[in-house]
UniProtKB/TrEMBL annotation:
Protein's name according to its UniProt entry: Transposase
Domain of life: Bacteria
UniProt-annotated stretches for the region Disordered: 155-182
Species per Swiss-Prot/TrEMBL record: Bradyrhizobium ontarionense
Ranges of biased composition (kind: Polar residues): 160-176
NCBIfam families linked to this entry: IS66_ISAeme5_TnpA
Amino acid sequence: MGSGHFENKARREWWSLHIGAWRRSGLGIRKYCQQQRLTENTLRRWLKRLAGNETALKLEKYQTELRRERAREEREKALRKQKQRRFTVTSDVRNQASQAFWAMHVEALNGSGMGLRAYAAAMQLSPHSLRKWRDRLDVGEVTIDWRAHLHPSARPAVSTVVSSATKEPNCETSLTDEPLDR
């Protein structure tokens, strides 16, 4: 292209508007050109022509850094959001079963005298999951009585009949009573 091509006032104005819009968009040149249906190389040539080679390179680097910074901020925001929603106690039966399962294992771990890794290996459990559930239960984030979720056939038999051994003893005993057969 001859130098007259770049000197055309209408073209210069049109491309300078696109370059300004690209800068404000925060997009990369490739993505901006795809959205606007422009040729990437043409936008780069006009950028160099209008801003100068050095300035064009600096501008592209700056835009790239901005995109990276925004992407990093978005990832951090997503992580914060994920941590906030990390775990919630629910009335869903499947989650209750899972909570009861881990509560039972944490209780068994605490009563076993074994270390977490040794217990997890013996029970073929994930040490990471066991540690997470132990911490949740210790903090009180989850409070569940796992025994209440046992099948009735697995629960210990509890008698409703009062045993005679539990009755209060008679105030008078045979040692202090007078013999009846005399």
